[in-house]
Amino acid sequence: MPESYKILVIDDEESILKLLSKELASPERILHTANCAEAAREQIRKNRYDVIISDIRLPDGNGLELLTEFKDIEPDGEVILITGHGNIDNAVEAIRIGAYDYITKPFRLDRVELVVERAWQRVCLQRENRSYKHSQNDTASTQLIGKASSIKHIHHLISKVAPTEVPVLITGDSGAGKDVVARSIHTASRRSGKPLIVKNCATLQKELARSELFGHARGSFTGATDNSDGLMTFAHTGTLFLDEIGELPMEVQASLLRVLESHTFRRVGEKDERTVDIRFLFATNRNLTQEVEAGRFHEALFHRINVFNINLPPLKDRREDVPLLVDFFLRKLGQQMGQGEYTVSERAMQCMLSYYWPGNVRELRNVLERSIILSDNYVITCNCLPREIADQPERDSETGILSLERMEREHIIKAIDFFSGNKLKAAEALGIGRKTLYRKIDKYNL
Ligand SMILES: Nc1ncnc2c1ncn2[C@@H]1O[C@H](COP(=O)(O)OP(=O)(O)OP(=O)(O)O)[C@@H](O)[C@H]1O
Ligand SMILES: [Mg+2]
């Protein structure tokens, strides 16, 4: 449970405000007071309260109205109402429209204490449920495997930046581990017990992006039949990870910048600003500098999200981690499939070490998943690997030197690939005649 929570006590009787403030004071509670509906409204909009305790009858309004307004802003917050003696009808109505409980005046302080504590527990439970619903893949890995110096450096960066509030921009090719980095930052941060909301900006529909991010008020556009919360509200107190940030529609970029700078936003169709407390993480495999130059990304937003950059190198630049990753995935996948321990033949490992892994760690994982299915007796051999991986040039096992024939074969494949199968051009580039090339293609069975 979080360390502290905020309570607003609303009553026009000064003595009650004083009494409750004094009696409810504890290290984990932050208590504010308001003596009329108007003042309460302002505070509710400005601060994020977890629980409010309000008199039903106020000089300029009533607690029931405040209840609805508060729930609108803080759907997981709870309201406790204070009613005068013999005013039970009101109290029942209050529960019906969403109050957590009511206390009757004159009240017993131990009962107030109990009700407040229970209300707070309920707030926590609701937030937790919501975060489960929104974390798309809560079994996803937070362990960044690797001992290559580039990965060690990333471990170091994560340990430094995680405890801060600084936004982090995670870059790198597809499948290189950006999600893993984002999750490990959240896990190592003070917000680890709070929601981690993940949103892939490429899936935001242009017309609805604003509403999805910031929420909307009833009737603000066709189809907005109800008030609705956006991701900013779900991520409140936690972390919002905006994946593929380069895809964020231009239209909402300025509003995101505003949240980053002033921690405030507006729902679609509302004038009032709301405050949020969110740690932001971003990821992209696009070159954002180019996007800025092309006018597709706001420069100011770019600078704001690019305060701290973690760049994941492609797997081919840290091949020494391949065996470690292979071990990790075989153990994990083996367990998931409820089977035994897998090993990898030396030759198969050689092939995986030489391959260039265009799909990075994700491709490695997928290859292993497939090879487990094809393997016999829990041994992964070249036969279990896709051809493009199994077909790595054979090297002398002692010296690692490639035979000349093997070199020639590889070289010809490269040339033909380069010219997309055009053999005439390939022969020209290789400095041999077309016929010679055909002969070699035959010889090497290409
Ligand atoms: N260093 C690592 N240690 C353990 N698992 C990893 C590592 N890097 C990547 N993975 C795993 O590989 C897969 C792909 O990684 P991830 O989803 O983080 O890639 P990404 O960079 O976010 O890719 P994309 O740009 O396509 O979103 C995931 O299953 C992830 O758990
Ligand atoms: Mg990703």
Automatic annotation (TrEMBL):
Gene3D superfamilies: 1.10.8.60, 3.40.50.2300, Homeodomain-like (1.10.10.60), P-loop containing nucleotide triphosphate hydrolases (3.40.50.300). Pfam families: AAA_lid_14 (PF25601), HTH_8 (PF02954), Response_reg (PF00072), Sigma54_activat (PF00158). Residues 6-120 form the Response regulatory domain. The modification 4-aspartylphosphate is found at residue 55. One of its GO terms (molecular function) is sequence-specific DNA binding. GO terms for biological process: phosphorelay signal transduction system; regulation of DNA-templated transcription. It comes from the Bacteria. Keywords: ATP-binding, DNA-binding, Nucleotide-binding, Phosphoprotein, Transcription, Transcription regulation, Two-component regulatory system. Residues 144-373 form the Sigma-54 factor interaction domain. This is Two-component system, NtrC family, response regulator.
